[in-house]
Amino acid sequence: MSEDTRRELEEIKAQLTALMDRVRELERRVAPESGATTQHAPSAQRPVAPTPPVPQPSVPPKLEAREVQSLERALGGKVALYTGISLIFLAMAFFLGWAWTRLTPEGRLALGYLGGVALLGLGSAARSRSASWFVDGVLGAGLATLYLTHWAGWDRYQLFSFTLAFGLTMATTLFGVGLALWQGSQTVAVVATIGGFAAPVWLRGEGSGNSPLNFFGYLAALNAGMLAVSAWREWRWQQATCLGATVILLVGWSFTGYKSDFRLLTLGFVSLYYGLFAVAFLLPDLVRRRPTNEQSLILFVVSSLLYLPVGYALSREAWGDYPGAFLALAGLVYLAASGGYRRAGDAPAAVSFFTLGLVCAVGAVAVQFQPHVQVVLYSPVAAGLIVMGLRFNSRLYYGFGVGLAFVVVFMVWIVVSEPIRTPYVLLNEHGIAWLASLLAGSITLYALYRDRLAQPSSSVDGIFPRQALALMGAVGIVLGLAWFSAEQTLYAFELNARKGAPAAHLMVSLEWTLLGAALLVGGVQRAIRALRLMGLGMLALTTCKLFLYDLGFLEMPYRAFSFAGLGLALIGVAWLYSRLESAQANDNRRGQVFPS
């Protein structure tokens, strides 16, 4: 019986004792009153004596508070066990050091094996009479002692051949796995797993030659066996141990034994390991027809993020002029799996696969195309994700869309920081990037405006407030339009060998004025306040340019034309707003006379 069960039984016993005491007290008080009723019937005039309060029986206090009990069990249980095991190891080390000149190497190995077998026997004998953590600790210490002794016989004393040392290690690993299954102990399974993966570290130098095939084959066989056991028993700590040990061994081998000749062989085995991990993490829940476990999803995503850059680096040369093909194919697989999980009703798994698919798609575009092409491809995807998020009220699509929109802004900044190389107006690197981003931003801004009208509050606001995104988008569109028109206009004059001509700056001011007026008129006609504010922003920017730059740069008659054009535009703005105010006042008066 475990300590927790024993403690719960003691608490139940105490509560039953208190309940029995209270029942006896009630029976004792009820008995005299019932006897008096049968002997003398009370009269109506006889005053009834007040009943003294029944004393509440005292409930036996708990032996100790839960916190104190937990601390006591931790100190007296696991801490004491692990400290004792550590002391035994130290005692063994001290004893072996003292007996260094008194015992032969064979005798030292015999002591090691006797100690390991003794610990295993102690753990097995205590299986039915001790808590599971005690049994697991002792059995794990026994397995660790056997592994340590195998290492001493091979590396320290050179008494074992490679074949014998490898065979003993594998036999111990198999025995440890069988013992873990018999005991139902994940701790013992983890110890056996660590011992199996440690073999290539201390059994170095032989069995591999100039080819890593033996090393890769051993890792594949070991992972297949260990992951099969962990998937069957759903031991996720053992799965995490397999993943971590495989990564450590592969990284260590890459620093010492990797050659370019091994590229395809390494890619094949790394892909095999990833397939084994994916099956072990996902298949058990698929077979049992239940949602994928959260820990299994985390392990799968981590293994995927580890595999994808390695797979891309190893396969890049094989794809030739299409280095992004590997990531593109992986993204298609992930997105297809996301759709399947979504139809099955497994939302967490669908989200995980969709995330991996989007990451692969973004990465494929980034490694395959130039920055301005990336902007052209990212912009509609970001706008589409935001629109889908608003349409279906999906935090997933909306969040990814917002994140990708910020990536687009960063990529646009990278594009415009480089010089223009294509000798065409608008159809150059900067112009294509600006057009794509401005079009996608306008679609996003309109979708945000319509969604805010339809539902003032939405769950997607928890990811990024729609009003803040709309405000940032409006400011970005105004600045983008200004930069785009100015840059392309000046570039057109530069292509015609008129760089720095006053007419170029006059044309920029005129374009900004027309853009502002067009946005303002559109906002008034469609009754969209965001468009009106964008138009006013463009006109305000034009006014600042006129006084801060054109006034000191332009000469007559360009200065007069610039000021006159902007002045007429501002007068038109005032006239539009006066008409808008008058129309609103008439609507208000009609509403008062003819109420709806």
Provide a descriptive summary of the structure in words.
This protein has 596 residues and is mostly helical. The protein has three domains: 77-363, no CATH class; 369-499; 500-586. Helices cover 80% and strands 0% of the residues. It is built from 19 helices and no strands. The chain has helices at residues 3-39, 66-98, 105-125, 132-156, 162-183, 186-202, 213-233, 236-256, 263-287, 294-319, 325-343, 347-368, 371-392, 395-416, 429-454, 466-495, 502-526, 529-553, 558-593. Helix 4 (132-156) packs parallel to helix 6. The chain is elongated, with a radius of gyration of 39 Å. The model is unreliable at 36-49 and 590-596 (pLDDT under 50).
Helix and strand run: HHHHHHHHHHHHHHHHHHH
The number of helical elements comes to: 19
N-to-C span: 79 Å
Mean pLDDT: 80
Helix content: over 70%
Outline the biggest β-sheet: none
Unreliable sequence segments: 36-49, 590-596
Number of domains: 3
| Overall outline | elongated
Secondary-structure class = mainly alpha
Q: Roughly how many Å is the radius of gyration? A: 39 Å
Q: Hey, roughly how much beta strand do the residues contain? A: under 5%
Got a strand count?
0
